Every structure is written in structure tokens, then in C-alpha cells.
Amino acid sequence: MTSNTEQSIPQTMLAMGFDQPGGPEVFRAETLPVPQPGAGEVLIKVAFAGVNRPDVIQRKGFYPAPAGASPIPGLEIAGEVVAAGSDVPADVVGTRVCALVTGGGYAEYCLAKHGHCLPVPWGMDLAQAAALPETLFTVWHNVFERGWASEGETLLVHGGTSGIGTMAIKLAKLFGLTVIVTCGSDGKCDAARTIGADHSINYKTNDFVEEVKKITGGKGVELVLDMVSGDYVARNLACLAEDGRHVTIAVLGGMQAEINMAQVMSRRLMLTGSTLRARPDAFKQAVAEEISDIAWPFVEDGSLRPEMDQTFALQDVALAHARMEAGDHIGKIVLKI
Fold first, then answer.
1. Boundaries of each Enoyl reductase (ER) domain copy (predicted)?
2. Taking the mean position of all CA atoms in its chain, how far away is CA 172?
3. 81 and 181 share a domain?
4. Structural domain count of the chain
5. Is the pTM higher than 0.85?
6. Which of 17, 62, 153, 337 is most solvent-facing, going by the fewest CB within 10 Å?
7. What is the pLDDT of residue 260?
8. Are 245 and 223 in contact (CB under 8 A)?
């Protein structure tokens, strides 16, 4: 640990964990040792931590932390670097960063790989900064790197007012895409259009496949970002134009899908997908570097900001999870540490 900060760093910290999987009520406060940064790592005094769907799934017992990761939930944070391990420039200490982490965000201090951190521009609120990494890394990798999205194309996003959905809208619009989203209410459809979506479809009152056909004049969309899977996959494929790409990032509607492979072949469709948390550090660093070069300038000039929902105190994490599970949120939920 960097010597000039050791005296200001306590030995223990508050964190919110759980003993057994269950509902939001299983969270309880615990006192843990402040972790020590190793080679290539920084210790961040956390100001805010983002709340994400994978945190909910982990709390329920279906998404355990990868080997070597903290069992404390929390995949994105923002705060001040207070110590650094070897192989990290000394001048990093004292800077404000946001970071993608494999766990440990629901705590007063959290370790991050230096290569997975991005600098927070002066004047940007740390709550907003904490709401960026998980969704920005996910959308960037899946829409632009795996999905090959390019200017002039049309993107269909399910869950348009979720953290991922709102980031997909904003990022896609910055790069010249037309965005169609699905939402579960007219109010959320209105919100999605306010955020920047070109078209929004209430999937509870309309057949989104037919609506996409109307919007695109029968052509279909070049790309679908799918968080539902299950029986949505076949319907998503019906929304795709020839040579279209289908990218799955979650299976909220079920892990099994039945599709017509002859349709895939005849229309030259591509199906892909990914998860992020367990990917190697070098991969995440490469994504961070590409984001830094191409997307982060929009953060620096203020044209890209996450859509913010509500902020909860760390000790009220159960309320934050309950809000996410209720599905009423629009944009990102964060914890104030």
C-alpha cells in the first residue's frame, strides 16, 4: 500500500453482505478488513456504487462471485483512489475514478484493477460516474464490438428504460443509429422517447414484431440487443433485416429458445452473446481502453450522462433492490456510501 496514505486509511470498513440467498431482507451490515491493493490494483474510497440486475441475481443465489472475487455484491463504483499496489503509477493516488469491479462495491472501500478504471471529469457528479461502468462496458462491447453497430443502422432494445436500455439509447444515438425500444407501459414508452429513443413500443398492448415491421417499412432492424431470451429469440429474429445480428446479454425470460435454423441460414443472421463479469482482466482492460479512446470523450464534454433513477444510502440497499425488482425504475439506481 502506498505509504503516504496508510495513516488515513482505517483497518476496517462497513459493507453490506448476506449469509444466505433470499429476498432483499437478507442484506445485513458487516465489518470487514479494508483490502490491500496488490500488483496492478488500486484501493478506492467508494463514494457511490451502482446497483445492477446481476447484483439481484447474486443475492438470490443464482450468480455466485467468480473465483477470487469479493463475495460482497457491487460491480461498479466511483470515488477517490487512496492507495495503489505495485505496477501502478504513484500519481494515481488522489484522483477521482469510476471502475468496473468483479464484486465488493457495496462497501466503504473497494479494490479495482487500475486498467479497469476511467477518470471522472471534474464537474461530473460521482453518483453519475458510479452509474456508468457496468452499463457502458456492457453496451459498448455487445452493441459495437460484438454487434458491429454502425451509423445509419437501426437497433432494437428490449427493456428500454432499464440501466442497460437507457445507456444503449444514449450511446447509439451519439453514434448515429436509429433506436427502437420496447417497454412495459405507456409511461415508460414516453420516458424512453424523452431519453432519446426514436420509437417506443408497449409490448403489453402491441405485438412488437408487427410494430417493428411498420416502423422499418418491412425491412427490419440490423441489430437486436436482447435481455429476455427464451421465447423472445424467435420473435427477435423475425424483427431482423437480412444479415441482421442478434446479441443476447441476459436470460430474464428463460435460458431455452427454439428457433428456425433454416431462417437463420437463408437470411444470413448472426446470433451471439456474452457475459462480462468472469472475463479475463486483460479483456476488460482492452474494452476500457477502447471506451477511453472512442466513447469517453462524450463523457468528458458532458454529452453522455447516465439516466439516473434514485439514490439510496448503503444501509438501505434492501430498499434499492426492492425498487429494482419492482421494475418501476427508469435508469440507474445507486448507493451513497
1. 22-335
2. 15
3. no
4. 2
5. yes
6. 62
7. 94
8. yes
159 and 83 in a common domain: no
Residue that finishes a domain, picked among 231, 248, 273: 273
CA distance 186 to 206: 11
Q: Is 125 helix (H, G, I), strand (E, B) or coil?
A: coil
Answer yes or no: do 155 and 217 share one domain: yes
Per-chain mean pLDDT for the chain: 95
Q: Are residues 302 and 244 in the same domain?
A: no
Residues 70 and 126 in one domain: yes
Q: From CA 139, how far away is CA 10, in angstroms rounded? A: 36
CA distance linking residue 335 with residue 179, whole number of Å: 29
DSSP labels for 249-281?
A: ---TT-S-----HHHHHHTT-EEEE---TTS-H
Domain of residue 81 covers: 3-132+277-336
CA–CA separation, 337 vs 323, rounded Å? 18
pLDDT digits (tens, 9 = 90+) for 57-112: 999 999 888 888 999 999 999 999 999 999 999 899 999 999 999 999 999 999 99
Residues 272/277/281/284 CA torsion (nearest 10 deg): 50
For residues 67 and 26, membership in a common domain is answered with yes
| Angle of CA points 53, 149, 139, to nearest 5° | 20
3-state secondary structure of 37: coil
Q: What is the pLDDT of residues 191-220, one digit of tens each?
A: 999 999 999 999 999 999 999 999 999 999
